[in-house]
Design brief:
Oligomer: single chain
Number of strands: 49
Helix content: under 10%
Radius of gyration: 29 Å
Low-confidence stretches: none
């Protein structure tokens, strides 16, 4: 149950409570600011290696290299006050040629442009006045080979710099500490050839790397080179896969860029070499509240432009910026919001174990909502986030319980009986799970125990923008490592359902988080109804258990023998004879694992055998799978424990209605 203030708790239990409901539309997706990119420049420059940075005065500093046919010349550009009317077409030739790759970085007044030449020279231009003037080209080191396909650089807050170089199959780091360049250090990974690298400093050197693994599969990885933040100084984290394409196919990944605004955001290029070939940037972001080292990224989304060498990223002040050699885009960083509370005619919220919806009816008599997504109501549009907060008027004023969010799926204008209204229909993140399908095959634990059921669930949830948090968990969900495959086009919701079938645990979604719960019969009640909080109506059912026996078959690979384990709910077998369910899973390689699976099946069937509903004044903090105590003398119940398995909230102020219907299950 969500925590409520003492005053809100008291208000919702009063017989004369005054309902309050707050609803706001916000330009976010899964809790992350949704950027609306506007192209400010559409030029004719050749698509090739390039870089972007924004020093401390907000100027836009770019570098680009021309293709080999034009001698790989290095150009730079500075736009002092970038905006919609700026000229992004003017470039300065640096008198440097045979440049292979380039990177740019800045801190306060200082800016640097790095490049590597065909003769392996690593060089830098340095500015100490925001890029207005530049020193001569410095030779700082040599690359190990001429097979260089990526370079990235970032400053830390004390002025030190790290430069990362993707040289064949090795990533090197070279740091400038206190003005002195240090020797190059190679990473400790074994991969195939690399094709790109990007970096942001944030307590550690947070990296994106593109290239191949040792089997020739194309990869996009996240990686951390530690500086004592989340990873020890001078050490490398594990490579964490964000995207993959098979060797010998038509897809590859290259040219990553990275920035951090509200979350980490990246762009990389997916290159397809088959019929209707393309090179298309894809954008992705990490989840709010997650560490970069966790490696939790949303499913990458295509960007509407064609370019092989990617979109460089930077931000300053109120705006984020993207750039290719021939293009510049800008987006406001601040989320747009619109308070809908004053126009709400009615609201209906429905929550089940695997779905959630919200329907809002708004008064549109003044035509305020005539053009969603435009003007003063730009925040209200299909795909925007609705923040739903039930509450009451308390002695401290209007108080709410926040944290529930929905995504608008449709906006309907209604004209009836001389009145105008707008109906918003929205879904919770179960809808996003239903919409998600795998673009390629995922497989875990084929040859080693890499990820538990819980870990795999967290990966799939993250692809749809959901962070997994734990309220309680079983030993099975953290200790079972199945050989598990997600095939292309597999549905996210069905994948999560299959994973949950391996354990007694359940998941509920609230806002942009999924909460893991291991229901236990000994769980204590978190709230009581029928005493201080009145029950308006109730029905309570005890049903026959539909599965009272389980036969689980596994396979012991060490002995080459079948494992067969039977589990029974003997009291129910005595009542109804056996209602058996058979399960076969070769991942169950011990009798203990087979027994746990059978017990999980019986446990879920036991919970489902108890049902019922109660109608009550709205409890603003009630959550799915909470255990409650129900006292209803008319039904002969005294502090009977039940588990919340569904909820419907109705708000009809013109009818004086503000209540919840709570679905009940067994504990």
């Amino acid at each position: 149950m969500r925590t409520l203030t003492a005053t809100l708790l008291a208000a919702q239990q009063r017989a004369t409570a005054v309902p309050q409901l707050k609803i706001e539309a916000v330009s976010k997706i899964a809790g992350v600011n949704k950027y609306s990119w506007t192209r400010l420049y559409d030029g004719a420059e050749d698509d090739y290696f390039h870089a972007l940075t924004m020093p401390g005065d907000g100027s836009l500093v770019r570098a680009r290299i021309t293709p080999p046919g034009d001698s790989r010349k290095l150009y730079r550009q500075r736009v002092s006050s970038p905006g919609a009317g700026s000229d992004f077409s003017q470039w300065t030739y640096t008198n440097q040629y045979n440049a292979v790759v380039t990177a740019a970085a800045s801190l306060n007044t200082e800016a640097s442009i790095f490049w590597i030449k065909t003769n392996r020279e690593i060089r830098r231009f340095k500015s100490i006045d925001y890029g207005a003037n530049w020193g001569s080209a410095e030779l700082i080191d040599y690359a190990p080979t001429t097979a260089i396909y990526g370079i990235a650089a970032a400053y830390k807050s004390n002025g030190d710099i790290a430069v990362f170089i993707a040289d064949t199959a090795t990533l090197y780091v070279m740091k400038c500490i206190g003005g002195q360049w240090q020797a190059q250090v190679a990473w400790d990974k074994t991969t195939g050839n690399l094709s790109g690298v990007a970096c942001v400093y944030d307590g550690d050197w947070n990296l994106l790397v593109t290239g191949k693994d040792t089997a020739g599969n194309f990869k996009l990885w996240s990686l951390v080179y530690g500086d004592g933040g989340d990873v020890g100084a001078g050490t490398w984290s594990a490579l964490r896969e964000i995207a993959t394409a098979p060797a010998g196919g038509d897809y590859e990944y290259k040219q990553p860029f990275l920035d951090k605004t509200d979350v980490y955001r990246s762009f990389f290029t997916e290159k397809y070499g088959g019929i209707e070939a393309y090179s298309r940037p894809f954008g992705a972001n990490t989840l709010p509240g997650m560490l970069y080292s966790d490696g939790r990224w949303r499913e990458p989304v295509p960007f509407n432009v064609s370019c092989e060498y990617g979109l460089a990223m930077a931000h300053y002040g109120d705006y984020g910026w993207l750039a290719s050699p021939d293009g510049v885009w800008r987006a406001s960083l601040a989320p747009q919001s619109l308070d809908l509370t004053g126009d709400v005619i009615s609201a209906r919220q429905e929550i089940s174990e695997t779905a959630g919806s919200l329907t809002i009816k708004l008064d549109n008599s003044d035509g305020k909502y005539a053009s969603p997504g435009q003007g003063d109501i730009v925040a209200l549009d299909k795909g925007c986030q609705l923040e739903f907060s039930p509450g009451y008027r308390t002695i401290a004023g209007s108080e709410y319980s926040a944290g529930q969010t929905y995504c608008v799926e449709s906006i309907e204008h209604v004209s009836t009986e001389g009145k105008a209204s707008v109906i918003l229909r929205a879904r919770d993140r179960w809808g996003a799970l239903s919409d998600w399908s795998a673009r390629y095959q995922f497989r875990w634990n084929k040859t080693a125990s890499d990820k538990s059921v819980k870990d795999i669930i967290a990966v799939i949830l993250a692809r749809t923008g959901l962070k997994l948090e734990v309220k309680s968990q079983s030993a099975t969900i953290t200790g079972f490592y199945p050989d598990f495959t997600v095939n292309p086009n597999d549905n996210g919701k069905s994948v999560i359902g299959k994973l949950l079938s391996f354990a007694p645990d359940v998941i509920f979604i609230e806002g942009n988080k999924a909460f893991l719960v291991n229901p236990q019969s000994a769980d204590s009640a978190e709230y009581s109804y029928g005493t201080d909080h009145v029950i308006l109506e109730g029905s309570y059912r005890q049903g026959a258990i539909n599965v009272n026996a389980a036969e689980v078959e596994g396979y012991d690979t060490s002995q080459g023998k079948r494992i067969v384990v039977n589990s029974f709910n003997w009291s129910e077998v005595a009542r109804l004879n056996d209602r058996i369910k058979h399960v076969e899973d070769r991942n169950l390689n011990t009798t203990a694992k087979a027994y746990q699976r059978g017990e999980a099946l019986l446990r879920k069937a036991e919970i489902e055998s108890v049902s019922g509903t109660i109608s009550v004044p709205v409890n603003c903090g009630q959550q799915l799978y909470d255990v409650i105590a129900v006292t209803d003398a008319r039904a002969c119940l005294a502090a009977a424990k039940r588990r919340v398995t569904g909820m419907t909230l109705v708000y009809q102020p013109q009818r004086g209605e503000y209540y919840q219907r709570i679905e009940l299950g067994g504990v």
